Amino acid sequence: MTTHPTEQSAPADDTPVTFHDHLLPGIEAGRYRITVDQQLPAEDLPGARLDPVEQIVDVRAAQFRLDPSWVHAVYPAAYSQGPFDGLLPHITLNPAALPWEREPFTGGVGSPARAPWLALLLFGEGELPGDPNALGTTASVTVRALLDGDTAVSGPALDPDAVDHALLDTPCQVIDVPRVLLAQLLPEPSDLAFLAHVRSGGEDAAPAEGHDGRRSQDMHAVITTGRFPGTGQGRYAAHLVSLEGHVPPGAQAGDKPVRLVSLHSWTFTSCPESGDGFGRLAGRFAPGNGEHSAAPLRPAPAAGSGLPDELGTLLEQGMVPMTHITESGERALAWYSGPFLPRVAPGLPRPEHGHFPDADGLLLHEPRTGTFATGYACAWNVGRALALADPGFATTLVRLRHQGRLRRATERQYTTYRRQLSHSAPSAGPSGPAPRAAARAAAPTPREQFEELLRGDALDALAASFGTPGDDDAVPRPRTVPAAPAAYRLHAPQRSAAPPPPSSDARETAAWLARLRTLSGVPFDCLVPDRRMLPPESLRLFHVDRGWLDALLDGARSLDRHPGADATTDAELDDLLDGQGSVPAAGLLLRSALVPGWPTLRVEARAASGTTPVTVIRREPLGGDVLLMLFDRMPDRLTISEPHQGLHFGVDDQGNVALRSLAPGEVGRPLGRSVPVGTDPALTVTTPAGARVLDIGRLAARLAEDVKPRSPLSPAEFAVQLVRAPEQLTLSFEGTTR
To answer: Does the predicted TM-score (pTM) go above 0.70?
Structure first.
């Protein structure tokens, strides 16, 4: 196996990417006959020769269907739109050896060595008779019907006996491709190996539908198509098809359509003039682009609105006017501010016992307008509503409080019991009898009277009457105790000085509150109360109001809470919360087509003029096109980039392939020169239908002349040359702490 690491094509802090030519399985799928023949050296001995033993073994692998979880990623993403005319669509598969587990073109045509049995074909609108709108539509037939064949189409020539009989009546998806079109799109058998390789490390640019596209060091197989989307707007359907049992279209005469098994398909739209490329979309956040520019999150008034200064100041501080309904039912104007502010919020004064018992105490008076500020009160109510909506958390919290009260009640009773046992009457002073209260305290308690009774002969009498049977007989025996002890005390068992470990309920409650502290589950309207604060294609930075988070958690912890009785439980939860990670202090909201188009979009935040990485506490897409990120501090530099080595293959905006070094230790380093592909008719063939298809063999030979003279390129080296460098945008911010 040939490997080609590309450390130099990604930043040093990124996961290195390695390309491999292929990953051959230990044995290919198929039916094998194993014969065991044993013969002893001395042939003249009786029984020296044994009869051969034969065993049929079936090595099975995917053939007519793929497990959906095996599709790790596709690019372009399913249903996405963008300028994809310079990119070669591809699919990434989790089983890295899958494309080489079978042989292509087994219908009487010798297949080239190490060629994959899978190919990715791209079809435009009006090209497939069964899918004229290029929606990825397929037909469903049973495996038995596929093997039996259809007189109207040319299907795969496979041995039915070699197919698992349990699969014969299962459905598979097929497409019928006109033979002329297939001959134009399918590479030559000798060039097929260049369109498949294996990569390890890195990250994918767009995970398949239903997958999260997480970074992984595992190996993945990559299948690339040789066709570019058209230069005009149009929809395309990509199909991962099986070539097993087929012959190359040009090797057999006839005009019957070829029936191919489609193992996976998706659709996307190429819009070269839409302006939805990564560079164009990210470039809008640069300064000078109006509301698209990166800016603090605030509902700033429009220019020339004529608002009084005090109202404009409130808007600049992130407050939004709202209708407030009082307890008496009256409607009044109030100001609302969520947890995201364009400024550092002042500290929220806490009550004496540490937590707000209700929302009324959080209604703050706004002196400049004579109205109420309802942000903290709303946060308290939202926290309580979220706690009530989660029956598991509510039950756990109530049980934790009851256990705490029971434990403290037991401790109080035990303390009283100890105090009673250790009580002794005070002696009379020289000045006469003690006061009345002291006289009452000197009177023996019932417990003391009972203990005094036990110190006398009554204890022996009770022991004789109610003795405990011994181990060797059942005869009652009197207990032997001192007749008159000098002192009598009941001592408590010694307690450890270390506090007991937190209970499972306490840990579960603290974990739930820690998730809530990252605003998980909080309605988006509470975070961004006015849509004008986050217009389409915008990036907004904000500070997180710690007081808003505290009010939110106070509301969630208010269930069955009694300030005096639950102080110890609250203190325990506070200690556990302190150990649950950092508290969000800042963040960003990105509303852009970058979010659905690049699900693993890289956003790197740094502080101290870009020298210190900022910890990401939470990153989550909200809705279709909004990304929320929370940080432990306010960054002063952001870098937005495509996923490094995100498996983009194709040409640059000028239609050139940027050459990269293949020298040891420098693999992937740009060489500063390129090969024109889009303008060279010998490298890009335009079919009569207008499809632009790479001549894979000629392109590989042309690239080898520049980067590897007198030696052919391997599939991995060919893939390194076609990788497109990721684009990125760096934004610097000043004055974000005001």
So the answer is: no
